[in-house]
């Protein structure tokens, strides 16, 4: 092209990443010719400006060729964007990685003769250099044993930061002799532990880290760096691979405890069912650089990535407890497997949450232990459709650092860079540690059955620690026998049951939440606790919940709701469900309990009943202007958050569970848009919510609100799958309740916090009942009374001695039964409502049965089909309290689907249930 060229023809080859080069040309446009002047005159170089180059590099040299200069700029960007495709990061060298065509000089119109020509770049230290040096530097930085991906990020500030911090040291900052020795000590510790366990417990599963040993020095430098920066807590989530190694060599767990787990010994202070050793969590303190940082490893089931949202929720709660708005005080670290990260959708869901207002935690450091194989796949193309397992990081514009697992110094640098990035920008960052697993999926596996080529290579390789030790011998850092001496010293510590990481100490009590008062006996759910509020509080809080700020314009429909609430607050009208629920939250906030509501439509409520958040109809902006009456009720005494969540169930419910693990004084509520949407979070429910206490001793007071009721809305919007929760009920692990009045939901929510018992609460909430006037309750039921696990007959014209049949039910079918009974003028059938399905209220139910001395039949009535609902789980409870009565049932016939999608058929089924029950 020459110094003067056709600007229109060249425009297509220029893009945002060339901005540094273009700025230099803009400065020199006068000397470069009219073509450049026309280009810059059109404003094509407008936009964020990176740092200026030195003045000496700004003026074009003699014989300046703008076309070739532009080609060099394209070549630099090609390496930044695609150099990772040719990087030497696979320690096994399994697949030949051909250089991408964009990395060839010829692709950009450059020739061998250009290698000795000088060009300008924005590479630190190579602002003006021969092309030969430029290409050598690019290959070192992007095609060696470490490579970076950041050009997909649209922020010029982040791209410039990476250029300065990554390229400024040529991706290989020098380590001192002391640093190298420390890295070696950590590598030897990682390998020696695995070898020791292999000898002592041959053939037992431990999901060895061997092959990915560099994870230990990586995490070590990451956590020590965080501690030195003043971070107060670090929360780690990881699956099985290398977990035992992290427990011993990072968190300082005593080897004696681990050995007992291998030998199947339970400690006296352990309760519940327990879990396998590679699911267990741990906590300790890290003391470094004059600071102390609390570290915790989250308990994790075999569902691998599902721990991710739990960790993020716990981190959020810890940050809130510290009043940390930007996330600087608590660091989340997630360690992934390559196949799980790419294959399990929860990874994308959690990443999608990372920068949202309700779920952000100030950036997470992700580390992938990239074994280059899933479970038993024979080719990487069977594991994913993307080039890298970390490619989902690009969705949220997260930088990625790819590291050869046999290069612990590269891992050392990556950890420091990742921590600094998180500190600077408060965003997620990924480290892809490309390695292998020496023993296949586990120590009982024979990996050559499915990966003969890979494991043929692995069997011939020295372990990573020895590989690095040999490097240090060649550098003259250590002697030939130093590695073996370090191994023997480490194994001696194991034999003496000494903690392997002297930096880790027992956790300080000040860093723990005192859960002791929340650990009563299992039957203490029956303990009396006062949930009523006095008339003065009722009036004050009711006024707050119905007072519209001056100048605030409500939507007309919301205005009617608020106007009705004002009448309720004054005692002139009964309280509906929405008012009762808000009153429960407001009263808890006033007493110092925090409240967090989360769900896809939780602010107004899916069925337009809650209206915890009001939107001004006349304020501009996407967010508009909102008023949250609960914030005024809290008056600064306790935190309140109402979060309309992203369209996720699994990640959001996992997050809220994590919050509940760390916040016993906060009512944490997740509401499903429809009850059966919780199906998408079944792993969270099964593996954490209903079993976490008995596997790991982890208490949670999480509340799940699941809209439930058969109203002709088809199979997806009828059932919250009550039967699934009933199947999971045992050992008083959760509460399952089906409240049918406004006062009942008020007292139930308050009981969840006022009672010192912390167990999850699953509530089958209504839909049509939310506006049913029969559900509304007078003021007196809030200023007195309590939650009733069973509600007996309430109609005064049903005489106990005349009752020949007792119908027992749960939920909205009660109102349909009562209406039909009144229409038929039946006075010898009583109806009782089972409001707490589990734990079953034996004493209260027995008293109701005993109150009808002439009753001949007890009938269970439910809307759900016979193979669903509560019937199969509670029938033996009902039989226990019969006094010679016959037990029968009325329900829909068993069905593969929860409900019909035809309105007429639904009505006919519902009518039949009522007819049979009252026959």
Could you characterize the architecture of this molecule?
With 919 residues, the protein is α/β, with parallel strands linked by helices. It has 4 domains: 7-141 and 152-169, no CATH class; 177-511, Thiamin diphosphate (ThDP)-binding fold, Pyr/PP domains (Rossmann fold); 575-612 and 629-783, Rossmann fold (3-Layer(aba) Sandwich); 790-918, Rossmann fold (3-Layer(aba) Sandwich). Helices cover 37% and strands 13% of the residues. It has 33 helices and 25 strands. The strands form 5 sheets. Strands 3-9-10-8-7-4-6-5-11 form a 9-stranded mixed sheet. The protein has a 7-stranded mixed sheet with strand order 15-12-16-17-19-18-23, sandwiched between helices. A 5-stranded mixed sheet has the order 20-22-21-24-25, with helices on both faces. Helix 10 packs parallel to helix 16 (408-425) and helix 30 (813-823) crosses helix 33. It is elongated, with a radius of gyration of 33 Å. Mean pLDDT is 88; it is low at 1-17 and 19-59.
Overview features:
EC 1.2.4.2; elongated; alpha/beta; 9-stranded mixed sheet; Rossmann fold; 4 domains; 919 residues; KGD_C_sf; ODO-1/KGD_C; 33 helices; disordered N terminus; 7-stranded mixed sheet
